[in-house]
Amino acid sequence: MGVGVLALQGDVREHLVVLRALGAEPRLVRTAADLAACTALVLPGGESTTMARLIEAFQLEPPLRAAIAAGLACLSTCAGTILLARTIEDGLPGQLALGVLDIAVRRNAFGPQRESFEAELAVPAVGSEPVPVAFIRAPTIEAVGPGVEVLATHLGKPAAIRQGRHLALTFHPEITGDSRLHALFLRGLGPTPEGGG
Known about the structure:
By secondary structure, this protein is an alpha/beta fold.
């Protein structure tokens, strides 16, 4: 399978380490040609407005939209989830929202970097043991559409969701040493379920 990691900014190396440990051979994605070789893409955490500017600078928005429309599956964490959202409730004017996921998000919902924290989340889709995660300048998911499956919550709000073959997280699992959510994503890279988006 051709799994890419969007390598413009953010936690690129950490995702590569997890994916390789799971037996994948991920590739860095910085150009449309890189993207064309992928059937799945990880959009890492980082800074959403910076990532959006870099996507524009690298002329990646049109090929990203086309690839996703053609079936590219996405795993997004933190800022990556903001990029894939339909609505950014507190986004900057004109901030890129690709509209892949039927969710509304709020950026930096827990405050600045110094307010970052670790937690353990119950995610029944990956087993009975809680998943250790890090919330780093994390967004919150404020609303979900009818086709969105909530896999985990934190403080009463969705923190992990699945829509079709896309898996979106408001936190970072890649820096806490737990690979189960990445494994869940890789297992879902079969044919798109009916009604999946």
